[in-house]
DNA sequence: GGGAATTAGTTACGGAAGCAACCAGAAAAA
DNA sequence: TTTTTCTGGTTGCTTCCGTAACTAATTCCC
């Protein structure tokens, strides 16, 4: 019963790979814009899919509402987004990026694409496809 | 420039997959033994590779020394391991599992193997091999 | 219409992580 | 020897995350 090693344990490997792969990009948005991971994700969703409510971001991004709430406040403090209360339901706030926010999004978006390309350059197209397929299935997307 | 989506961003996917895949097993050792992730990893290393110093665990497991230090204390409180100061260098402590610790290790070890098997049953052998190869490379092991 | 139950979002609190400062012991240098 | 540097390990501080409780607005249902 000693044939199974930690490096054969998929969740462990996934965590290690996730940490390693995130580190580089994380440093980029942290150093450059003082942003946290959740902030980057929220910014991405708004930049990529247009104005959304916090609720919608929660669902799409699968982030807990308290984290989103804090990220939204932080992005607001940085003047990267604006809130606008909806007239028909005053519990809802539409969130939209400011010009400054859009600029940051564009930079990070480009960098993310570049980063991903660079990272995947070690693999063949087939490996890349299988990797993504497996990850998507595991993440149950 | 809108062809790149969050779900195409490998670090994002990796994080999602890592979180999802860890959740099930994490619940197991948390509910059953009140352990944290770092504690489980330290326990695993000691159970799988025999007595080690904290330093060695840091290197092998790639965990920061403060985390290891706290995990070791926690495992000691639970009576899962013992420290023994080395005579030739009194800064070093050899850590070894108690009988209770070994029992917990065996249970978790078996459960991890089972969990992994179950999780991978969705994939073909080839996919499994490629997935692990890619993850190992990304994690730069 | 007027409660009761829901829902969007915030806040408060306790635990966990990272960083830096720290302590003791050992090795290196003077 | 003694003083400086380095190393293994711990602790303090601050930030971050998750759970649960809360507020305000809306809908359900009588």
Main attributes?
homodimer; 141 residues; mainly alpha; Arc Repressor Mutant, subunit A; three-stranded antiparallel beta sheet; 9% strand; DNA-binding
Architecture overview:
2 copies of one chain form a homodimer. Chain A has 141 residues and is mainly alpha-helical. Chain A has a single domain, classed as Orthogonal Bundle (Arc Repressor Mutant, subunit A), CATH 1.10.10.10. The first copy, chain A, has 6 helices and 3 strands. Chain A has helices at 10-33, 37-49, 54-61, 65-77, 99-120, 125-138; strands at 52-53, 81-85, 93-97. A 3-stranded antiparallel sheet of chain A has the order 1-3-2. The mean pLDDT of chain A is 94. The structure holds a DNA duplex (30 and 30 nucleotides).
Characterize this entry briefly.
The structure is a homodimer of 141-residue chains. Chain A has six helices and three strands; from the N terminus they run H-H-E-H-H-E-E-H-H.
């Amino acid at each position: 019963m000693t044939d199974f090693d930690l490096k054969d344990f998929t969740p462990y490997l996934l965590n290690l790979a996730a940490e390693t792969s995130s580190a580089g990009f994380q440093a980029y948005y942290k150093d450059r814009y003082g942003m946290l991971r959740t902030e980057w994700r929220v910014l991405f969703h708004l930049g990529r899919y247009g104005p959304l409510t916090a609720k919608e971001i929660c669902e799409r991004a699968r982030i807990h509402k308290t984290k989103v709430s804090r990220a939204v406040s932080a992005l607001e403090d940085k003047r990267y987004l604006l809130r606008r209360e909806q007239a028909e339901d005053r519990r809802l706030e539409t969130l939209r990026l400011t010009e400054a926010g859009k600029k940051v999004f564009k930079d990070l978006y480009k960098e993310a694409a570049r980063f991903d390309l660079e990272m995947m350059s070690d693999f063949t197209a087939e490996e890349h496809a299988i990797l993504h397929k497996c990850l998507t299935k595991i993440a149950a997307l």
